[in-house]
Amino acid sequence: MMGARPTGAGAxxxxxxxxxxxxxxxxxxxxxxxxxxxVLAYTVQAARESGLFTRIVVSTDSEEIAEVAVREGADVPxxxxxxxxxxxxxxxxxxxxxxxxxxxxxxxxxxxxxxMPNCPLRDxxxxxxxxxxxxxxxxxxxISVTRFGWQNPWWAxxxxxxxxxxxxxxxxxxxxxxxxxALFCPTGxxxxxxxxxxxxxRTFHVPERTxxxxxWEHGVDIDTEDDWRMxxxxxxxxxxxxxxxxx
Length: 247
Fold this sequence. Notes:
six-stranded mixed sheet, 28% helix, two-stranded antiparallel ribbon, single chain, disordered C terminus, Spore Coat Polysaccharide Biosynthesis Protein SpsA, Chain A
C-alpha cells in the first residue's frame, strides 16, 4: 500500500549500517583501507553529510569495527549477537534487530535507511536523491539499483557439464539489443523502508518495493578482490580526490 507519511521536520530517520567482522571472501573488509581510510568511513560520511538522519548506528559484532565507527562519528549502542553475524543471516534481519532494539515500541523513527559499508562510492547526494524519490513515490520500501552495463543480460547463457549452452531467455537471445528493455541489478548502496513495513514484513523485499537508480560507478558492491580493485580504480579515475559530497 502507498500512503502519506511525515516529511521534512516531521520525519525521524534512522540509518543502520550493518558491518560484521567476518568476511570469508575479503577478510577484514569493513576496516580495510581504501585510499587511506577504512571502507566503513565512507558510508558513515555519506550518512552524516546527507543531513537526513536523526541517528546513524553501526550494527557490528566486532570491537575493532565499533572503534572505527565511533571515531568516524556513528553510534554503536550495542554489539550484535553472534547468531546475527553469520553468512546465512539476511542483512535485513540485522537492520530490523537494530530498529527494534533502539525503538521497541515504534515511537522514535518513522523511516529506516540501510546503508551497506561495502558500497563506499555512494555519497551524501546519492542518499539525499534516493530519499527524495522515496518520498515522491510514497513507497513503503525502496532499494537502490543499477543498470546492467556492457554485457547484455537478456543474452545470458547457462553452461552445462559438457560445455553446452542454454539461454535463460530463449525468446530474446536473437533480439537486437536496442529493442530490449533495460534490466536492473540491486546494489546495497541505499535501501529505505517505513518502520512499520520492516516490523511487519521482516524484509525490504516486498512486492510493492520500488527501485531508485544509482550511477553504476557509485553503486559498486565490494565483495571480492576484483571488486576491491575496481573500487580503487574508480576512486583514482572517476572520483579523483575522493568521493564527492555536497554538505
